[in-house]
Design goal:
Blueprint (H helix, E strand, L loop, with lengths): L1 E5 L5 H4 E5 L9 E10 L2 H8 L17 E7 L3 H4 L5 E4 L10 E5 L3 E3 L6 H4 L4 H13 L7 E4 L5 H13 L2 E6 L5 H7 L3 E4 L5 H9 L6 E4 L3 H10 L5 E4 L12 H6 L3 E4 L2 H6 L3 H16 L7 E6 L3 H8 L7 E5 L5
Parallel strand pairs: 8-9, 8-11, 9-10, 11-12, 12-13, 14-15
Antiparallel strand pairs: 1-2, 3-4, 3-6, 3-15, 4-5, 5-7
The chain binds NADP nicotinamide-adenine-dinucleotide phosphate.
Length: about 325
């Protein structure tokens, strides 16, 4: 089969090559998925750069999520039940940017027929994180402000649409002024650009009290620090990404006297703590919200596997627009 392989860590556009490799065979408790499509997410490109929480030993194949059809099951009863089904393929170790991927049967989640391939391909990472962060981890109450940085991201847009449905207010931070209009049109309550002045001052100008009590940051560095400094008394910042790879400066006095807090979130850990029935309920919740148009992914360019380097280059472009999708050859 063909697969996108990197033999050393580095810029994805430079280190990825498409090679013929042996088609993998499923072992006990595993299934093989004939892959249809997989998005290019920041976690995938960070994995290739060697700066993600999961660090493989190259040569390795990237790709944490995607959609495909189960074509074979290894020994064991459960895997056989999903053979022939179109599934969301959750690959915690990476490996979906290939014509076939092998994953544990529990990670092959059948997708309802009315969810098209381009939405099913991105059904897990961002939609589930949007639900987990806003409804479960922070459980943002109706009417409260949620400060959201990198708000023009695919995930940021999902959080904005979810806020309209769940009744909390979004105060969005972007790095380019020209990105503001789109988020207002999408339903953001307020949008500021870090290019137009210090974020904490702009935030205070909007919330008028002492600042928001809920915040989300996937950027880190100066942007994450500015989000932390914008928090009101008792405010909670959940850090869920590291786009800059730089630390956030946390003022101990703020932690002590203003009782602010910072915590991390990783979907892999969070899902591992859910029981199988609970995970099933969450999948249904996410699928319903995709159907309603709340957790949909706007798809930008699509590329065949042979052009994986171009796909990663486009995914990394500033102000890129929709999610870049890799088409991997399989059909639903
Ligand atoms: N912890 C978890 O379990 C988890 C789960 C899902 C996603 N995530 C994280 O969530 C983040 C968003 O994911 P996504 O798929 O929605 O991303 P995406 O669609 O690729 O969007 C990335 C966004 O980040 C902005 N950005 C990139 N570098 C930046 C910087 N240095 N400063 C400020 N903004 C920057 C971009 O702004 P422009 O529009 O200006 O280019 C873009 O809007 C990523 O960090 C991802 O790793 C984490």
């Amino acid at each position: 089969m063909k697969a996108a392989v990197f033999s050393k860590f580095g810029d994805p556009a430079e280190v990825l090559e498409v090679r013929e490799v042996p088609t993998p065979e499923p072992g006990p408790g595993e299934v093989r998925v004939r892959m249809i499509a997989s998005p290019v997410n920041p976690s995938d490109t960070m994995f290739i750069e060697g700066r993600y929480g999961v660090r493989p030993t190259p040569p390795a194949v990237p790709g944490f999520e995607g959609v495909g059809v189960v074509d074979k099951a290894g020994p064991g009863l459960m895997g056989k039940m999903v053979v022939g089904k179109r599934v969301v393929a959750i690959n915690n170790k990476g490996g979906n940017w290939a014509e076939y991927a092998v994953i544990p049967w529990k990670q092959a989640r059948p997708v309802p027929a009315d969810i098209p391939d381009d939405q099913a391909a991105s059904l897990f990472v961002n939609p589930m994180t949007a639900v987990a962060l806003t409804r479960h981890v922070l459980a943002v109450p109706k009417g409260e402000w949620l400060l959201v940085s990198a708000a023009g991201s695919a995930l940021g847009k999902m959080i904005i649409r979810l806020s309209r449905r769940d009744g909390f207010k979004t105060l969005c931070v972007v790095r380019r002024s020209e990105a503001k209009r789109e988020l207002i049109d999408l339903g953001a309550d307020a949008v500021i650009s870090s290019s137009e002045g210090p974020v904490p001052e702009q935030v205070r100008g909007i919330t008028s009290d002492d600042g928001p009590r809920y915040a989300l940051d996937p950027v880190g560095g100066e942007a994450g620090t500015a989000v932390f400094r914008s928090l009101g008394k008792g405010g909670r910042l959940v850090v869920y990404g590291s786009l800059t790879d730089e630390p956030i400066a946390v003022d101990p006095r703020s932690l002590i006297s203003s009782r602010t807090s910072v915590e991390g979130f990783w979907l892999g850990h969070w899902m591992a703590e859910r029981s199988i029935p609970r995970a099933l309920i969450l999948f249904r919740e996410v699928a319903a919200l995709i159907r309603e148009g709340v957790l949909t992914t706007e798809v930008g360019a699509t590329y065949p596997l042979d052009r994986v380097a171009d796909a990663t280059r486009e995914a990394a472009a500033v102000g890129r627009g929709g999610k870049v999708l890799l088409k991997l050859g399989g059909e639903g």
